[in-house]
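note to self — DONT lose this again. spent like an hour looking for the file last time. sequence + predicted structure for the chain T wanted, 86 res
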Amino acid sequence: MLEPVGPNGCRAVAREYSFLFAGSGQVYAVDPIGIGTRVGSWTTDAGYEPIADGSYTLRWDSGGGILRLMGGIDPVRPALHAVTCG
């Protein structure tokens, strides 16, 4: 679960995977009662895990959130993900 919590209790939850020289991840928008919907996915080079590394920002406004993943020397594609609870 990523911090901070969004408006009306909306949360962003991420899963990441790493295998050999590749990585991937997904972000889910989870409403206050716990129902989640996948809202984005990404791939990385060299098995990089940006969430586990703390290389992200999550900003919320009244319309939802924007998750930005930063890759450093290992790129993350795509880097921006909209997080909106239904």
